UniProtKB/TrEMBL annotation:
InterPro entries: Uncharacterised_YqcI/YcgG (IPR014988). It holds the Pfam family YqcI_YcgG. It comes from Streptomyces angustmyceticus. Residues 229-251 are annotated as: Disordered. The lineage of its organism: Bacteria, Bacillati, Actinomycetota, Actinomycetes, Kitasatosporales. This is YqcI/YcgG family protein.
Amino acid sequence: MNEHSTAISTDPLRADGVRTDALRAELERFIQTREFSCLGARAALKRRGLTHRHYRRLGDEASAEENHRDLVAYVDAVRPLLSDQSFRTFVATFEEPGTVDEHAYEELLWRHLQHMHDLDSRTFGLDAGASSDPEQAHFGFHAGGHAFFVVGMHPGSSRASRRFTTAAIAFNSLTQFTLLGENFYSMQDAIRRREAKNNGSVNPSFTEYEYEQPARHYSGRFTEEDWKCPYTSRHPPATEDYTQGLLPHKR
């Protein structure tokens, strides 16, 4: 199965590939719009490093099981290919729900990730230096022993850079980020300048919380100060912390 293929399904909505192909085209168009800020995703698209799969419903247990299966296969395929020059991302899109508000999307996102994690933790452990505890600064969503930073997108997002036509999740390798070294900060600065120019401001979640608690950034909603992540880790505590070398957050 190549990086441009889609999840195999007997679902009549997708059996002929028309819906999936249309969403792939829409995803590529969205990534190239002025409002979309992530330069890493643009680079992944340009270098044919974007993998897309389509599922029935966000938060649904069966869809989460399919998503987990495909993401583990993706990890096996791309882990040896990651480098300081690689830009790769896995994007899952969902037929349902339609347009929902940010709180409803956030609830469905974490329900979906919890289903995936419950499956994953039965077989796989932690990535080196990452935690699956969402309270920690070195939190990463794990699949196949590999940690990801998750970017949620949906039609009801208040941020234009996350306002895709259907519910979606982008899984970005944390290893890929660390391999970029200082170039990570240069790209981050460029992304934020782009977002401020094209969307009026930088996402306040990043300016307020920065590296303190990455789980706050997943859904794209600006979370309350007393927000608690609705996600329970099944893994033991991490013994290393890859974030120790990151720039400190300053309020």
